[in-house]
Amino acid sequence: MSAMIHDPIDRPRDIMTDNKAFTPDTAVAEPNTARSSNASSKQAALPPSYSSTVDSLKDFNSKANLTEKDQLEEGDYSPFDHRDPNGASSGGALAHLLKSSLGTGILAMPMAFHNAGLLFGGIMTLVVGFLCTHCVHILVATSHQICRDAKVPALGFAETAEKVFEYGPKALRPYSNFAKQFVDIGLMATYYAAACVYMVFIATSFHDVINYDVGLKWDVRIYIAMTVIPCLLIGQIRNLKWLVPFSLMANVFIVVTFVITLYYMFDQELDFSDKPLIAPAAHIPLFFATVIFAMEGIGVVMPVENSMRKPQQFLGCPGVLNTAMITVVVLYAVIGFFGYVRFGDEVRGSITLNLPDGSWLGDTAKLLMAVAILFTYGLQFYVPNEVLWRKIQHKFRPEKHNMTQILLRTGIILVSGGIAAGIPNLEPFISLVGAVFFSLLGIFVPSFVETVYLWPDRLGCCKWKLIKNVLLGVFSLLALVAGAAASIDEIINPKQE
């Protein structure tokens, strides 16, 4: 599979093309005020295992401004030679990528198989995994090439899109800032939407345990309202080092939960006979939306790659990306397959919710996972809020910044709680977020960005790369429309228990 994924952008570096033989309309990038010394000290305070999480902010602010003087140099420029020599090793980058990919999405995979069937789900999980990996590959490869053209050492996701348009065909250069803002806003919306999913998951877990054990009949919306309270507190944390203890505990809780879940998955003989090989066609869009939500990690890829001291080892065969994604896809397929076989049509949005009610071990797993997600909420909320604040802080007087941030964070969390209460059904909510946000950012944007960069004469024989990217774009839009429609239909007309 790794050989299939390896598809580098193969072209001579010395050929002068329309995209490379000119100075962009915006000759010098604007100074990046976000990368202050204060931010650097915050990152330095974190242990190395959390560097990929902290560096996720680089999706929105890269190191481009640090070497603007290099844009005046002539001759070939190798961005790899200007990376931090003390950056992450390939092994460290692999660990960071696995840590970010093997999260809560894996718990939704049995539900994805329920919407696809055993055979179709198994095959298409591998296919979607290949497509997601390929889209990450072309994004990183394009970023490497545009870094060479722009003579900067590294670019984040949004800045890669901006530079590709800025150095691209003349008709598209005026849209470079729009491309950057589109990706920025898309990433922020993705984080905020995922935070809403977190609230629903936390509330549902506590709802199932407390209602069963205590005999209450409370609606899940009551638990969502109660979940908002600790989220309001942890969401006010603005210093990343204060979030580190929460992340440490969350990691421990997640590992324990996985072990308990695996125990229940294989605690009795599995019955394959009553599981369809292919699910009804109406459920297929939900499968694709859920798998894309679970598997897509486009937001953390560029920060991990930017942190490497030898970024050329990120792509290739086997490479960091291929190794991580093969591991992720196999684990997701195994958990999804056997999780669906074990729980069948009763499977829910997170497999932990299928663990036996009233069992101390099952209740422990549900509560530990809920607390782990709550502790992770602070980091999930921190990243987009920092980006949003950098975009709007100039509109407020400095002496009002503290109170404004408090009110802003409180307002966003309350709105998130309202959205979560409006969509308290976890399964279609996950599918909706995957269909809308991850289809756009994970598949459509990378394929479109590569097309713009290679246009017009570097698209391969018979323009096969253009055809390939058009197909990827069509697939992403179909997944978006069909997945969103099916998810909204389930939200409006929930299935009867």
From TrEMBL:
Domain Amino acid transporter transmembrane: residue ranges: 89-488
GO MF entry, a single one: L-amino acid transmembrane transporter activity
InterPro entries reported in the protein's UniProt record: AA_transpt_TM
Composition bias, Polar residues: 33-55
Region (Disordered): 1-56
Residues passing through the membrane, by range: 119-141, 182-206, 218-235, 242-266, 278-302, 314-340, 367-385, 406-423, 429-449, 470-488
Localisation: Membrane
Keywords: Membrane, Transmembrane, Transmembrane helix
Segments of skewed composition (Basic and acidic residues): 7-17
Protein name in UniProt: Amino acid transporter transmembrane domain-containing protein
